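Extended Data, panel c. Modelled sequence:
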Amino acid sequence: MYLYRAVDSEGNTIDFYLSKNRNAKSAKRFLKKALASCHSATPRVITVDKNPAYPVAIKTLHEEKSIPVGVKLRQIRYLNNIVEQDHRFIKKCIRTMLSLKSFRTAKWILAGIEAMHMMKKGQTSQGEKSVQNQVNLIHQLFGIPA
């Protein structure tokens, strides 16, 4: 299983996506989902690791006009550190569980861990750490009607 994560330049989590494969189709699905998030602006640069699926996915999204033409793809090893440092917390939580048995279980557990991490970073609506804002974030992430 592969966990795709999008983080902005300030370290705020934009979106995440768990996939069974790490190919161009999965990368395209994740990028489309992350760019469609209501809280993200159109990026000028997308920095990713050296996975060869990303250029194919970006090219396809450019052809579909899902990404504006001016958005550049940057595959430089050390510029991906913001995502990797933010991902460290998630890895730490998963490692203590030893392994996740099924894809469905992994998907829900990771969504919960990501939600808690976003709350810890103060990413609830209006930046407040009130309980109601945290409940609203959980409802938004899990698709629960308010």
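The beta strands are 2-7, 13-19, 45-47, 72-74. This feature is highlighted in the accompanying rendering.
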